[in-house]
Design a protein that fits this description.
This protein is mostly helical. The protein is built from three helices and no strands. It has helices spanning 18-52, 60-118, 149-158.
């Protein structure tokens, strides 16, 4: 089975900005949620069909057991897909922290350390302590609600 698209091929190198990762993870989350809903619908139909058309010749335990064998895997698949959708939030947060917030904090600390070495020594009591500014999370910027991951990548490549 071959899948061809008119857009650019996907690679991990495209995840260079928080906006791109946010678009990718929200698009992935949407696909996973749609698949979970599809499996839930099949599961609901399978359970309803089994209850409405119980096979004759089975005692109640055997009927329950076979029903469980039919509908059980659907429940597990649905749970796994829903868990994967929840993990997209971790993907987004880890990327933002690991690729942007932590390196920015390290760079700022190194710059402050370098400036402290270059600055003349201040005598005690003459300088006022300035509280550190809070680190603001990155903003969405140009990414709109309807933009997908690959459309953002195409815009970046054309710019």
């Amino acid at each position: 089975m071959s899948r061809t698209t008119a857009g650019p091929e996907w690679s991990g190198d495209m995840l260079t900005k928080p906006e791109l990762v946010e678009a990718f993870s929200s698009q992935l989350r949407g696909v996973l949620n749609a698949q979970a809903a599809y499996v839930a619908e099949i599961r609901r139909d399978a359970e309803a069909m089994w209850k409405a058309n119980k096979p004759e010749g089975y005692n109640s335990f055997e009927a329950w057991w076979r029903h469980r064998w039919v509908t059980g895997p659907f429940a597990e698949i649905q749970e796994h897909i829903e868990k994967a959708a929840k993990l997209t939030f971790d993907l987004e947060a880890r990327y933002r922290k690991g690729r942007h917030e932590i390196p920015a904090a390290r760079k700022k600390a190194a710059l402050e350390k370098q400036q402290a070495k270059q600055a003349p020594q201040v005598t005690a009591g003459t300088a006022q302590a300035v509280p550190p500014k809070p680190v603001e999370p990155p903003t969405v910027g140009a990414a709109g609600a309807g933009d997908g991951f690959l459309s953002l990548v195409s815009k970046e490549r054309s710019a």
